[in-house]
Known about the structure:
Largest sheet: 5 strands, mixed
Number of domains: 2
Radius of gyration: 22 Å
Number of strands: 7
CATH class of the largest domain: Mainly Alpha
CATH topology of the largest domain: Helix Hairpins
Distance between the termini: 25 Å
Number of helices: 3
Order of helices and strands: EHHEEEEHEE
CATH superfamily of the largest domain: Transcription elongation factor, GreA/GreB, N-terminal domain
Shape: elongated
Amino acid sequence: MSNNTVYMTQEGYDKLESELEYLVSVRRKEVANQIAEAKAEGDISENAGYDEAKNAQAFLEGRIREVENRIRNAQIIEDDVDSPANVVALGRSVVVQEIGEDTKEGYTIVGSVEADPKNGRISNESPMGKSLLGKKVGDKITVKTPNGEIKFKILKVE
């Protein structure tokens, strides 16, 4: 496991591959056409369209490198068959309840590149994710937040 390892689900990996295919085969051609059209307009030294197209190209190439790097360093999260089913691990979903509250919250623990807290997908590197990893049903955890500590009880792991 190197420091460059990018943890992700198979779904996240597939999305990255699809994005890379789109960026290389479709978006690159679109940006190249924008540059060609801007060049055709004449003097490029004072051509805002040309500058905009070149900036788009730089952004695109940066994103392509970033996606390629993530794919190259991807470690697919697979269910750890050696880990008991009631233990929180990467790729697993967990239901927690804040101590003293009635509301239950559900999360799936994913790698940082797939984190989407609004949709219940939290990073293994987040304060909540770090606190949950390795814990099991019935355990109580304390999560440090900017507003203080919050205590949760783990109700379910799947």
